[in-house]
Amino acid sequence: MATLNAPRGTRDLLPEETPAWDRVEAVARDLGRRYAFDRIETPLFERVELFARGLGESSDAVEKEMFRVSGAAGSDEDRAGWALRPEPTAGIVRAYVEHGLHVRPGPLRLTMTGPMFRYDRPQAGRYRQFSQWDVEVIGDPGPAVDAELIELATRFYAEVGLTDVVAHVNSIGDAECRPGYRNALVEYFSQHLDRLTDDSRRRLEVNPLRVLDDKALAPDLADAAPKSADHLCDACRDHFRTVLDLLDALGLRHVVDHRLVRGLDYYTRTTFEFVIAGREGQQQALGGGGRYDGLAELIGGRSTPGIGFGIGLDRTILAMAEQAVTLPPPAPLVAVVGTGDDHASRLRVAGRLREAGLAVRPDGSSRKLGKQLEAAAKVGARWAVIVGDELERDEVGLKDLDSGEQRTISLDEVPGSIRG
Ligand code: AMP
C-alpha cells in the first residue's frame, strides 16, 4: 500500500524540533505580558469576503494564495465561500467590530499566536501552513506606538538569541497623499513597460505600489522610482519624521527602505519589516507589519486607527539554527525504575516527584534492573530513582547516570538533591 505523507507545504515538527518552538513561544508570551497585551483568539477560517475587503482583491494573498475551504457540497457555507486565514489582522479587526470592542477603555492591545495558511508554491522558508506571533494595537493613532511596536519586535529577536536583525521602515501615506504617489508611480513605470515583468505590468493597473514589491524589478529602475516619502502630505510626513526620531532616540537599528510597500491594501503610513543585516534581498523577511488606519471601516466598523505586526515563527527558528543559537537546557529527566514487579510503588513514587515539579518517566516493564537503567540512560535520563524494599522506610536509591554514583536517601530529599 502507498504510504501517506504530510501535504505539500506543511511539516511535522518532530520532538527534536519542538524545544526551539517552545522557546520562541515562551519569549512571545512573556513579552506579551511585559508589554501589557491581552490574548485574543479568532477562527482559523473566515469568509473569503473578509479577506477580499480587508486585504484587497489585488493582493497576492487574495488573488493567488487564498486557501479555500468548503462546507458540505452545496451547503450555504459552501456557497458563502470560506478561506483559511492567510494573516491574523483582518480576523482580529473583524472581531473588534463585531463585538463592539471600541466601547472598552483603549487603546486595545491584543496578541495571538497560531497557524496561517497561504496556497503558495512551497520553497525554503515558505510554507502553506506557517505560524505567526501577532500583536495589534487598535485605537491608537501613534506615532509613539509605532516606535513601541518596532522596539517590541526588535526585543523579541534579541531575546530569542538572534543577532543582526534590522528594521526596514517606510511610510506609504494615507488616503490623502497616496493617490498622488500612485499617479507618480504609474507615470514613471509607464515609461519603462518593456523592462517590467508581466506580473508588474498587471500590478501597474490594479495596484501600482506593488510593482516595487516585485523581486524581479531591476535595481536601477527601483532606485530611480518615485519614493513615497517624497509624496507624503504634511500630516503623514510629520508622523513618519516622529517615528524615525523615536527610533533614533531608542537607539534602534533601522533603515528607511523606499521599496517597502508591503503586499496588503490595508496598510497606511508606517510599514516595517525585519531582516538579517547584510542578507537583504537574499532571504525573506522574518516579520513585518504596519499601520492600518482604514481597515476597521473597510470591514464595516467606524473609522479606527490600528497598527500591528506578525512575526514568522518558522523563519525565526530557521534563522536561529543558522546562527547556531543555543537553547536553554531542558529540565533534568528522572527515570523511576524498580527491583521486582511493584508497579504501584513506582507510579506512587513518580507521582510524589512530579508533585515536587520534576520531569519523571517511570519504567513500566519488569525487566532486570540493569536493563531498566540502560534504557533510562538511552532516553536521556540524568537520574534514576530506584524503588525497592527501602520504600517501606520511605527511602529510595538515587543513581547519577552520568557518574554512576548511587546512594540511598529519603524520598523527600530527592528533589533537593537533583536540583543541587
Ligand atoms: P507578511 O504578512 O506576508 O509580511 O508575513 C509576516 C511574516 O510571516 C513574514 O515576515 C514571514 O516571516 C512570515 N511568513 C509569511 N508567509 C510565510 C510563508 N508562506 N511561510 C513561512 N513564513 C511566512
Q: Would you kindly provide a written description of the structure presented here, covering whatever features stand out?
A:
This protein has 420 residues and is α+β, with helices and mostly antiparallel strands. Helices cover 35% and strands 21% of the residues. The protein contains 15 helices and 16 strands. It has helices spanning 18-34, 48-55, 60-63, 76-80, 89-98, 144-159, 178-190, 198-206, 219-223, 234-249, 295-298, 313-322, 343-355, 369-378, 414-419; strands at residues 38-39, 45-47, 67-69, 82-84, 108-117, 129-138, 165-171, 254-256, 268-276, 287-291, 306-312, 333-338, 359-362, 383-387, 395-400, 406-410. The strands form three sheets. It has an eight-stranded mixed β-sheet with strand order 1-5-6-11-10-9-7-8, with helices on both faces. A five-stranded mixed β-sheet has the order 13-12-14-15-16, with helices on both faces. Strands 2-4-3 form a three-stranded antiparallel β-sheet. A hairpin with a 5-residue loop joins strand 15 (395-400) and strand 16. Helix 6 runs parallel beside helix 10. It is elongated and about 90 Å long. 38% of the residues are buried. The model has no long low-confidence stretch (mean pLDDT 93). The structure holds adenosine monophosphate (AMP). Residues 87, 118, 120, 125-127, 130, 132, 285-288, 310, 312, 314-315 line the site of adenosine monophosphate.
